[in-house]
TrEMBL record:
BP GO terms, sorted: cellular response to stress; positive regulation of metabolic process; protein ubiquitination; regulation of gene expression; regulation of protein metabolic process
Compositionally biased region (Polar residues): 279-288
Gene behind the chain: LOC113403466
GO molecular-function terms, A-Z: ubiquitin protein ligase activity; zinc ion binding
Region annotated Disordered, chain positions: 238-313
GO CC terms: nucleus
Lineage: Eukaryota, Metazoa, Ecdysozoa, Arthropoda, Hexapoda
Domain RING-type: 124-188
Keywords: Metal-binding, Zinc, Zinc-finger
InterPro entries in the record: RNF25, RWD_dom, UBQ-conjugating_enzyme/RWD, Znf_RING, Znf_RING/FYVE/PHD
Superkingdom of the organism of origin: Eukaryota
Protein name: E3 ubiquitin-protein ligase RNF25
Length: 313
């Protein structure tokens, strides 16, 4: 620990003074790891920050005489090509400035990029259209972006779905279930928006200007590929509820029931299936075998017969 250069402590002290609570310094074997979340410069208007990234600088034991290791993580609103541009710029900077404290300048490089690209890149995951000038969109506290109108639709539907599921519950479970909570459609962080206000925003511009749907040759080829893939999955028993219905949804069988279906193919398959499930102590396959419970032909998630049918081929 004593071998860490005094300049390192000076640098960290200066960073702490500037960044205050935005800086976290950990130590790995006495060597500092500096972590800070970098935002674009938008003055006091935090609402206008659409992107951010965490910069991690792992100092080396002889820093600043050798370059630190630098990573970017937890990026929000930035696409991969932009991140690799930033990476490249950081590497250039490191190469040119070996021997000097560099962390603050790295932060500035990242901040400069973020300020220039302070627009959500990529698509709104709800409508899959991009963000263009004039779109009304919103940033969640977890730094995910959606067209306001899209988010309104999503929240209305997710509440409706919650209520539908709630109605199906028996009373004792209703009493225990948590009240509806809006969540981010990307990361499920709890969010809280006024749906009425969001709903007043216009729909995404690209959705209005999008050309009418046309079945192109490319789409037809894709369709053909997909249906071949589906046929293959159906054939291998990988598709539930298509064609062959598999075992009935709930099979309650008694010793007497076991007599008949054993002769048919599906009966034999089910037998194989349940042999694997039943503990090895009851290997006896005679017709007067004891009642085995209602779950024959089910895998553990109660989906009918997938495992059994797949294994039989
Ligand atoms: Zn959208
Ligand atoms: Zn989120």
């Amino acid at each position: 620990m004593a071998s860490v250069d005094m300049r390192v402590y000076d640098e960290i002290e200066a960073l702490e003074a500037i960044l205050i609570e935005d800086l976290a310094v950990k130590h790995d074997d006495g060597v500092p790891i500096i972590e800070t979340v970098v935002h674009p410069s938008t003055g006091d208007q935090i609402d206008l920050q659409y992107v951010c990234v965490t910069l991690v600088v792992k100092l080396t034991p002889d820093y600043p005489e050798s370059s630190p290791e630098v990573f970017l993580k937890n990026s929000r609103g930035l696409d991969d090509s932009l991140l690799s541009d930033i990476d490249l710029k950081i590497k250039e900077k490191l190469d040119r400035h070996v021997g000097n404290p560099i962390v603050f300048e790295l932060i500035e490089i990242v901040r400069e990029y973020l300020t220039k690209w302070n627009l959500p890149s990529g698509q709104c995951v709800i409508c899959l259209h991009g963000f263009v000038k004039g779109d009304v969109f919103i940033k969640t506290p977890c730094y995910h972006h959606f067209h306001s109108n899209c988010l309104a639709k999503h929240l209305i539907n997710s509440e409706k779905y919650y209520m539908e599921e709630y109605e199906k519950l028996p009373n004792w479970q209703r009493a225990q279930s948590l009240p509806y909570q809006q969540t981010c459609p990307v990361c499920r962080c709890a969010i809280s928006f006024d749906v009425k206000t969001l709903e007043e925003a216009p729909p995404p511009i690209e959705s209005i200007n999008a050309p009418p749907f046309r079945l192109t040759a490319e789409l037809k080829a894709l369709q053909a590929r997909m249906s071949a893939m589906l046929a293959r999955q159906v054939e291998r028993g990988g598709v539930v509820g298509s064609g062959d219905d598999g075992p009935p949804l709930l099979t309650i069988s008694t010793a007497a029931d076991n007599e008949e279906p054993r002769s048919s193919t599906s009966g034999a398959q089910r037998e194989t299936n349940s042999d694997r499930v039943v503990p090895s102590t009851s290997t006896d396959n005679t017709p007067d075998q004891p009642y085995r419970g209602p779950y024959r032909g089910f895998n553990r998630r109660a989906k009918p017969g997938r495992r059994g049918r797949g294994a039989a081929r």
